[in-house]
Amino acid sequence: MTRLAHATIPPREARRTLAQRRMGRPVWIGALGLLLLLAAVYIGWVRPWHLRWGATDQEIAMPLPGDPWIVPEAKVSTRAIMIDAPAADVWPWVAHLGQERGGFYSYDWLENLFLADMHNGEQIPAESDALQVGDRVSFMGSGPAGTYTTVDFVEPGHVLVAEGWTWIVEPASENTSRLIVRYPFPLGPGWMGRLFYYAWFEPAHFVMEAGMMMGIKQRAEARQ
C-alpha cells in the first residue's frame, strides 16, 4: 500500500503546474465574464443611446432631405442638440464644414493624430466660401477618395446633404434652434467590414460627431 501511495503522488513540478492551472482558471473566466458583461451593457444600453444622442422620437422618424441618398444596407444614426442661438447664427458654421474651410469644430488634436491637418475655425469665413453642390467636404488635407464626401444638396440657411450625411438647422423659437444630424454608414458584406464598423468606426464616429455638434453650439452661442 505504501509503494502504491508513493507511486501515485505527482512530482513536485507537476504538482506546481497543476496548482497554477487551477489558480489561473478563475482569472480568465472572470475576465471573459467581465468582457461579456461590458459587451451586453454596450449593446443593450450605450449603443442605442449614442445612435440617437439628443434626438426625439419624432426627429428619428421624420424623413430628411438626405434620405434618398441612403442605401438600404446602411447603418443610420440620428442625433440632435438644442442651441441657444437663432438659426441664422447656427447655419454659417454648418455651411463652412470641412478641412478646407472652417474645420469640423470637434477634437482637432484627435483628428491630427491621423495626419488630418485639421484647424477648427473660430471665425466664420466669407459667405462666398459657403458650401455648394458638388463641393468637397474633406476630412484631411489632400486625401484620396474616402477621405472626403461631396455635397449633393443645399438649402441655404436650413439643409446640407453630403452623400446622405444630413445637417438640418431648425428654428425652435426666435432665439433658439435645433441642429439635427443624420449619418448613414454603408455597411458592406463580410465579417471584416462589420468588425471594423461595430468595434471601431461607430463609437469613434459618435465621439467626433457629438464633438462637432457641441462645437457648433459653442461657436453659435458665443456670438450671442
Explain this structure to me?
A 6-stranded antiparallel β-sheet has the order 1-6-5-4-3-2, with helices on one face. The protein has 2 domains: 50 residues; 166 residues, Alpha-D-Glucose-1,6-Bisphosphate, Chain A, domain 4, CATH 3.30.530.20. The protein is an alpha+beta fold and 224 residues long. The chain is globular, with a radius of gyration of 26 Å. The N terminus is likely disordered.
SSE topology sketch:
Elements: H1 2-8, H2 12-51, H3 57-61, E1 74-83, H4 87-95, H5 108-111, E2 136-138, E3 148-155, E4 159-162, E5 165-171, E6 177-186, H6 191-222
Antiparallel strand pairs: 1-6, 2-3, 3-4, 4-5, 5-6
Helix pairs in contact: 4-6
- Mean pLDDT, to the nearest integer, reads 86
Reported for the largest beta sheet, the result is:
6 strands, antiparallel
Cα distance, first to last residue? 94 Å
| Structural classification | alpha+beta
Keywords:
224 residues, alpha+beta, Alpha-D-Glucose-1,6-Bisphosphate, Chain A, domain 4, 2 domains, six-stranded antiparallel β-sheet, 6 helices, 43% helix, globular
